[in-house]
Here is the input.
Amino acid sequence: MMGTKTERLSATLADITRAAGILRSGGLVAFPTETVYGLGGNARNDDAVAAIYEAKGRPSFNPLIAHLPSVEAAKRYVSWSDQAERLARAFWPGPLTLVLPLLEGHGISPLVTAGLDTLAVRVPAHSAARALLSAFDGPIAAPSANPSGRISPTSATHVRAGLDGRIEAILDDGPCTVGLESTILGLFDRPTLLRPGGISADEVAEVLGAAPLTRNGAEAITAPGQLQSHYAPSSSVRLNALDRRGDELLLGFGDMDCDVNLSQSGDLIEAAARLFAALHELDQTGRPIAVAMIPQYGLGAAINDRLRRAAAPRNI
Ligand code: TXA
Ligand code: MG
Here is the structure.
């Protein structure tokens, strides 16, 4: 949050316990991983995840990686497979992120997945990250700890330069050793390299016995929509609505008459936290959706970006 005093923590047991407590109460903690510093929040807390986007000043909602302490923990959230097992054995803990189908009852905030039914999971190797994950004992959503549009931080000094006063704490445990973000591999019909990173495609190929598809190659072969990185409702979406037309349900903002309200009090963090759940809820009715005007400042920019994508014509 703007105007917050950002605590400086180290990797002592007392400070790790403090950091876990901040996460438990919905606060944000930047922490080191072997790749880059992450900006962590409780992945099961909508408000905490909304606060991550707010602190980064992200103009859109990209899905985030859930950081976990172990393979066993990952299996609670995603549908595991033989390929996942082999890759995890070879590279976890370490700089590999796996994208897998979410399990029912996962409890992960839809803001983490940007409404998708897949989740990116990673077990980092850094000792301070592992200590924090076991102290917190839950999934930590963490994008790189830089303001949107700036380069990823590989030291606590970088984090402080970008996020001081915007987050509750920075856990400083020196520079990151890999310095490059994790490799992201989607385990869809065929394993697909979504982002090159700390583990090479060759290393992945060696474990899988075949080279992963690359994103461009995959787009040509796999079903349309499979790699779409954003959830879009199946009902039509009309923006900047002043009232309901025909059969429409109205998604509101602020003190107004509507079917679902993103935030009665006009709070943009609360609105962001509720956005995906609200879209899903309205979509399930099968009725067209009208959305009230959302202000463009703060998280409003990201909310409006998401709504514009939801309203864009589909070519399915
Ligand atoms: O090394 C890293 O991965 C660092 C450290 C902190 O762990 N994290 C990081 O997070 O780089 P971020 O948010 O900067 O990048 C996450 C990437 C995004 O490009 C996002 O689109 C992709 O992961 N991603 C997350 N969930 C996804 C999903 N369900 N499907 C496809 N892509 C996903
Ligand atoms: Mg990043």
